[in-house]
Amino acid sequence: MSIHVEPYLPDEEYDNPAMVTDFYEFTMANCLFLHGFKDTIMVFDMFYRENPDNLGYAIAAGQDKLTKFLLNYHFTERDLIYLKTKGMSDSFLDYLKTYRWKGNMYALKEGTVCYPQIPLVRIECDMVGAILIETYLLQTMNFHSLITTKATRITGLATHSPRNVMEFGTRRAQGESAGNDGAYAAILGGCIGTANCLAEMKFGSDVKAVGTIAHSFIEFFPNELEAFRAYADTYPENVSLLLDTYNVFESGLPNLIKIDDELIKKYPNDPNRRVKAARVDSGDLARTYKRLRKALDKAGKPYIKLVASNSLDEKKIANMEIYEDAHYDSYGVGENLITSATDPVFGGVYKLVAVKNKDGSYSPKMKCSDSSIKAIIPGKLMVYRVFDEEGKGQCDIIAMDDEVIEAGKDVVVYNFDPEDFKRRRIIKPCSIEKLLVPFIIDGKLATTLPTIKEKREYIKDQLEHKVWESELRPELPHQHYIDLTEKVYQVREDLYSSLHGGQI
Questions:
Q1: What is the pTM of this model?
Q2: What is the pLDDT of residue 7?
Q3: Which of 179, 186, 341, 346 could form a disulfide with 170 if both were Cys (CB 3.0 to 4.6 A apart)?
């Protein structure tokens, strides 16, 4: 095939996810292709080095979206024309014309509690399919994991104090896709709804769009009472009113009580047609809660729920609840959730760890570093989670894929932490779980993708029952033990010594 080189005409509406690729990935793939390596099988691991906000855990998310991307992986004629203008060879482009992703993807189940250094995704594929997917894979896994992790903290799942949180961050998200994927990830992390309509249209009713009125609606009317009345007339079974447009206690509260009294009079035999909730979006939220709750209870309206919003995050909410005993019935959380504002980068990386030889064996590959903690773990790896007598995760063991670790049998391990005083130890697992499971084998779906509801419950169950509470502390959490089998440890030591000339 020969593609005529002509100026490429940009098209802002064009969208092929396969082209979400850093250019150097094409230059590398083209070079290796021309040197005869198109059929070479490469193994890459995606992992991260530090938990967000220096906490004790993270949640691995984005696997399902990544799976669907790989199953639909292809290049269009427009892609090839563009790549020709960027200097790619005709033979390489001819290969890409009919290329489909035929590799293997192993990963943690979406929603799995995870820790630094353990592979979240393992890719084994021909050279092109291993290299060119890096950017999309990292973008997807990093963002979904970041927001899901943040959501588990804001919704209180991490501290075993669950609260009703609605995701309100679409308008502050970094673009449309972040708003949609962020809403999905927030729901996985325990949110009960999102403000984003498109998210519900894309993902279904489990990502439920919620909302009532804004200040502009109230400002539009001659006075607040008329605005409240118009809304109650339109949605008598879903009356939730915003109290702080003018003055919470001088106008908002009295008008809310008046509207509820009118509903009682109009629908005396229908308790569903009442004011359901009142939202506050400014001021001293803790003080306002206590005053509102007292006033509403005194007025005989304990059924009216209170909702808070206004740049909230897990610390602000916890401070209100713990130190001031101000427990709103639900919270709307926007920019601090959708951007994970306190730590907005999930530092996942994608590294070559092995190359398959013609005889079927694997040669470990390693990126070395003068910083021992940044030297990667080489080899085609598998991850096992070891559970203690209470069924909580005791440590994760990184083994070679051909190693077998069994419950009740001793295994020699080395703590990955180079500062650990006693790195070598022998453990006898009470029970174990093999964490990397097949999603795609030979380019075909190899599993059933769970529903959003199932993934939510999976996350909740882990945080409640399978993680040490000391790892969930918001301050100075216990750092989960990451161990290497003796075989992995020795391969890493030997390879680092031969390539870098030193000792880890």
A1: 0.96
A2: 76
A3: 179
